[in-house]
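Now for our specimen.

. . .
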Amino acid sequence: MKVFTVISGLLMSSVVLAETELEEVTVIGTTEEKTSVPEKTEILKEGASNTTLGAYLDALPNVDSASYGEAVGRPVVRGMSGYRVKVLHNDNDLNDLSAMSQDHAVAVAPRASERIELLKGPASLLYAAQAGGVVKVSDSLNSRFPEKGFHGTVSTDHRIDADSHALDARVSVANDKWALRLGGLKQESDSYQSGNGDIIADSDVNTTQAQVGLSWKPNAQSELQINATKLDKDYGIPNNTPEATRIDMSREDLGIKYRYQPDLEWLDEITLDFLDSDYLHDETEGSRKDGLFGQQQQRGSLNAAWGVGDWMGETRIGLAHSELKVCHEHGACDAFSDATRTGATLGDSVTQYWENTGLPYSHGHPMPDTQSRIFQASTTAQKMLNDSLELSLGTHLQSRQLTPNPDNIQEQWVHPSGLDPDYYDKRDDHALSFSLGLNNKAEEKKLTWEASIGYLERFPSVDELYWNGFHHATDSYIFGDSNLDKERSVNLDFDIGYQHNEHLIQFSTFYYRFKDYIYQDRSYDDNGNALIDPFHLSQVWLTGQTDAIFYGGSLRYENSQLRFNDKPLTLWGQADVLDASKTNGETLPRTAPASMEVGVRYEPADWSASLSLKHVFNADKLAPNEEETSGYNSLNIQIKKDWKVANQDVELWLKGTNLTDEYAENHLSVLKTTAPLPGRQISAGINWKF
């Protein structure tokens, strides 16, 4: 859109003129009622090894990052990955395809956000019914009307090994009725080195983002916002293909939001939110566009905050329409198009492969163009049962209509009706989820706790249903299954905290039982030999369902008894464990290994320092035919210094990760051997708020 070209120029100009960057990201771990743990914010930020969303959340209990390199890192929460973790940007579903495959980056810039929250239990059902919860990424465009005057934040940093630099800024100017917000981000990183000194080819990344928001406040009760965001990300995929594989991704959002606070005792606020989002990325091998992925979405929602009697809550009603398109054709994916029809038998080549191999291999476009229409209605509510005990409820109703259209698929690769006459039929699905929670939230209590139980239903995604083809970036052939049923789970969560003087103990545990859990695994013949696809001689992955159980927990302890220069020296430790298996006892693929981390934190008035050592144990809980991943250590340090200059805040920081330069692989990544974790990295930066 031309408007984004103008916006980009304005925003990047504002960055250059201000010579400053966006305010540092605040990462907040939340409970079901969205209560934050502010004392952990800096520790979480310090633990981020890069700027991916998974890295920002990696320090939270039982949260990992399915990452490789600088570009890609989707959060894995309590073993839940992909579609089981919903990512929101400014309260709207993120219109990207990061859950489809691990090589697809999350189309959001965590560095440019103001707050990242992880919601679970009843509170998460306001937005989605996902077993892994909801990750809310919020930036300045989701904030209330800004303070009068001219304000802003600017940051810049530089890193060696691999060379990386970034500059981002956010400014706002407002009077009593009008406000303008501008934001820009530019970040570049060269290919990184592993712990053994090897340069990981095609692991570089280039990210830019431009944002503009205009707000009008006609009176004290209402506010109208018009917002736009453009994000571009160009990055390499460090895989085994002989030529360089790259992804060029873009996301363009245009949104309107209206808030109104009526003069009603039972209704606190109404929010109307409309969003048009256009996502597109192409995958190239060498200089050929071998793949093209696109999704357009229009979404509208009504959110009401209310109070009736002793109950307070929120109700959200939304309707969304999206169209997903995929192209796979060597060097011929410059644009989406319908395939030529000559009158030949549809699916004759697929039929031949079925007869010869027992599997319907296809070398055409891997899935039909599919339109989705989704309606959802959800409510969360809380009520105090006594002075300290709160009851919370959450419900989520969702209806989905899928309309697949195989006109984009070349006629010889269309799924033949002789194998499944209903393969491309329209689908209507309905899901109902609910959750119940209790928590002891009295501030004067030394012992606090919260517990929740939920029943969740999830639809199989479009690609889980229809994908049938090769994926260049991950060098694998993937079969979906159009007969997949809804995924159902019963989720039990329990968290307890105890704080007394200089001691803090936090313990969390969970138990999730799934019916028809959807997963992908490599396929083998009856003799144990790995299946290889006939087109690229690559590994074959099948999508299936099984009953499964996830359980585990996290324990954290902090001690602030020691003092240095009359300031507390906080010692802390955290351990996470997880088990994920089918009900027959077989471990599920890519189960996160146990980890343990210890550290020390020192925070005088105007500066702070932290040192931590994380040990990830051997990944030896393995699915059949899965390879073990060795454990590793990571030694990290951060030092920050704050100044107050003429009512402006300036912060300098120095950070080092994996200081021992240890070689490590991420067991959660399908490309763990070609994209090991980075070696030693040293970076420094400055943040300015005015």
